[in-house]
Write the structure tokens for this entry.
Amino acid sequence: MRLPRQDTPLSLPAERPSEGIARDEALLRVRRVGICGTDLHIFQGHLDHRVPRGGVIGHETFGEVVEAPGPSGFTRGDRVVVEPVVCCGSCRACRMGASYLCYELKVLGVDLPGGMREYWAVSTSRLLRVPDSISDDHAALIEPLAVAVHDVNRADVKRDDAVLVFGGGPIGTLIALVARHRGARVAVAELNPFRLDILESFGLERVGPGTDVVKWTDQWTDGTGVDIAFEVTGNPVAALALLEATVRVTRLPMAVDRLREVAESFLHDVEAALEEHPELAEQLKEMLEAEEDDEDNDEDAFDFQSRARRRGPDPDRPPPDAPPGLPSGKALVDAVENYLRQRRGDDPPDGPPSGPAV
């Protein structure tokens, strides 16, 4: 992990700090760091508005304590993971016990310096011990696994529940594995062949491209529908497109109405933001197009240099394996832009509108 400092918005320190360690901090020798999709977006410059120049990425971090303050209870050699979410503890969300929604939330490795370095000084309040029964490689997965456990807990998944997960990326796969561990019957809907192979290797039921998810689920559940469905694609367009299918699968019309309200509120917020800050349209467009581009070849997801040189897909090319009628991320932005253009009374651009009506 001894990496050179780069002339980019990121720096990757390799040397042990000789000073500047606070009284409440432990010095860690970092042993493993997971690479999240967020890290790829940071490296590509899509989160420059959050990540300071000279920042250090890495929020899925496992390390070994080199030194720690006596009262902390940690000693040299302890194996630990770092809890990266920093909350204020005093806002309304924190007081309600929902610190993950803190109004002042910061994330180590995103807003604050993270763990992709050889040595890291971290507040002991962020450290969690790792038992010897967990290997170093597996310890690096504790942070994303915690996300999946949180999701499954909130959904109250029980033994013999029928669970359908939309999206077989890392988090979707972990949700499926945790739900199966709880005794549920689990299936994962995924389009990407590479991810489908990984799901198969875990022995998970798969719903691949070209399959009518609703009909498949009716057969899988003898017509009763699934008890719980997770939407884990991370794409707002896909979430809206899957809403009708999810509703038909879960047989919860009241929940559907509420989800539609949330979706409409989301679009309204996007419209308001673009009206106030028109420059955000280009940033949003780049991020959504980059999301499509990332799905094109997951085998190369960790090839930083080749990925950093890529500049988004052909705007006329639909997302790979996209089902009919599923708009691209660009179409969402175009739809909002068309809506705002109509409200301002501007002349439409040449040619037919490229996105659906909003």
